[in-house]
Amino acid sequence: MDEAAEEGYDAPFAVERESGEKAARQIARAIVRDIVGQGLGEGAPLPPEPVMLATYRVGRPTLREALRILEVNGLITIKTGRSGGPRVRRSDTRDLARLLSLHFASRRVTYTEVAAARRTIEPTLARLAALNASETERQQLAEMLHLSAEIPGSLAESQRFHHSVAVISHDPVLGPLSVSLQLIIDPMRAEPTRQWTTLMAEHVPIGEAIIRGAAEEAETLMARHMRHYPAPAEAGDQIVDWA
Q1: How far apart, in whole angstroms, are the C-alpha atoms of residue 28 and residue 16?
Q2: Helix residue ranges, H only, the chain
Q3: Quick one: fold of 3-88?
Q4: Counting beta carbons within 10 angstroms of the beta carbon of residue 158, is it exposed (0 to 12), middle (13 to 18) or buried (19 or more)?
Q5: Is the predicted pLDDT of residue 19 greater than 60, yes or no?
Q6: Cα 92 from Cα 73, distance rounded (Å)
Q7: Could you write out the DSSP letters of every residue in 115-166?
Q8: What is the pLDDT of residues 153-203, one digit of tens each?
Q9: Domains in the chain: boundaries
Q10: String of b and e for 45-68 (b: at least 16 CB within 10 Å)?
Q11: Vertex 110: Cα angle to 107 and 112 (nearest 5)
């Protein structure tokens, strides 16, 4: 394959480039490994700067750049002042969505293409939810379905259902990925009330299949449901631009 074409915008994706990783990125990854290895939770302070300089054996500019990388990616917060400093922050799907949207924009990915990817992922999540959900989660899903039957259909209620399925799938990759794609694409959808009411009615058999643990049925029903899911509005063919 021609190298220029392989790396160009007409290629489906760019292959990993063989280049040396910047020291700051190496240190950022080392800090994350230490956060995980030490079991540091939300809000836990990182060591003082002198300690970190000695631990990672880098200069102050490199360490501060590494911390800035982590801050931009939503993994720490940095406050100034005597009681400030870097603290652990648990990143969420909105952080992931921001990163993905930047990558998608640089690759000229459209909202329609993001929606297509989500249609592929959601049936798998429904199957995994049927297999992996706890009894408590199944009960909570049943309560959600009962409550949703008493309110008008809306995009917000649809989001709540699909977010719940992603969570109870217990898939640490596809779950957050699907929710992040949902965050990117849903603001571009129109919201005709009648259509959302119909779609929410389809949530019931999907949810019931998940509650019963009927994995194949849940997957099939979700695939059918996602084919009915509304495409993005007129902006569907626009390049992703989400913040």
Answers
A1: 19
A2: 3-7, 23-37, 49-56, 60-72, 93-106, 111-132, 135-148, 155-168, 174-185, 193-212, 215-228
A3: Arc Repressor Mutant, subunit A (1.10.10)
A4: buried
A5: no
A6: 10
A7: HHHHHHHHHHHHHHHHHH--HHHHHHHHHHHHHHTTS---HHHHHHHHHHHH
A8: 777 888 899 999 999 999 999 999 999 999 998 887 766 656 777 888 899
A9: 3-88, 94-237
A10: ebeeeeebeeebebeeebbbbbbe
A11: 145
- Rounded CA-CA distance 67/203 in Å is 43
8: helix, coil or strand?
coil
Mean pLDDT over the full length of the chain: 87
Using the structure block, give the residue that is written with the tokens 């000229």: 108
pLDDT tens column, 70-90 = 999 999 999 887 778 899 999
Tokens of residue 96, six digits = 């992931």
pLDDT cut 90: percent of the chain above it: 67
Do 134 and 91 contact (CB within 8 A), yes or no? no
Instruction: Give residue 94's pLDDT.
Output: 92
Which CATH code for domain 94-237? 1.20.120.530
Any idea which residue has 């002198």 for tokens?
Answer: 50
The answer to whether domain 3-88 and domain 94-237 are alike in fold is: no
- Contact status, residue 189 vs residue 155, Cβ threshold 8 Å: yes
Report how far residue 163's alpha carbon sits from residue 229's, in angstroms, rounded to the nearest whole number.
Answer: 15
The percentage of residues in the chain with a pLDDT greater than 70, rounded to a whole number, is 86
The pTM for the full model equals 0.81
3-state secondary structure of 84: coil
